Amino acid sequence: MLLVMDVGNTTTMIGVYEGVRRLAEWRLSTAQARTVDEYAVLIQGLFGLAGIEVKSIDAIVISSVVPPLNPVLEEMARTHFGRQALFIEPGVKTGMPVLTDNPHEVGADRIVNGVAAYARFGGPVIVIDFGTATTFDVISARGEYLGGAIAPGLGVSAEALFARAARLPWVAFRKPPRVIGRNTVHSMQSGLYFGYAGLVEGIVQRVRAELGESARVVATGGLSQVLAGELPFVDEFDPSLTLEGLRLVYNKNL
Asked: Of residues 37, 58, 109, 238, which has the active-site annotation?
């Protein structure tokens, strides 16, 4: 069995595969203060709930955008699973040429998402990942990573508004009854909800215009479903896209 981990700034996704079948997946908060043993206890506890034996894990693959956690997870894999983890980093085979100015600075999760999206849809394809930041990644018809865009995430945008505007209250992020808010709460929800939907749609339209051809769109990330009703141009919502990409990249490095 294959253990896959995607370590983001806010959330860590974990999955277990048996061949091409995903047996289980979980989401944990990313905490840099956790020790090797704490991560092991958490993961082994989840395994127990799912009826998965620790000794059944044959390999581990990790993508991470939190470098301080890499040695912690590397040690956890070695001491608690008896495995050498494969980290998605320069030199790892992905099968996807990266055509940016500096390929080394592209986040591992973005490449992994591109690999998964291209394997499923072909190209060109646009991947939108709703996380701490919202990233837009563009894959060409030939399976090349062309680059993309990075915007503040939904949560970051909302927190900035609440923190910087002293007279505005904290509000839940949800679709208001109408665009024209008739009170402060609905006005803020309108700006956050419809404003963010407009940001996403605007970037996708501009990417398609720059490509000069139509491109399929797949959305992922824990917040991808929040705006689902306002993004009719998205062909598929797949919160587990990154896990699938990790499985595919691992198989390319056997």
From this structure: 109
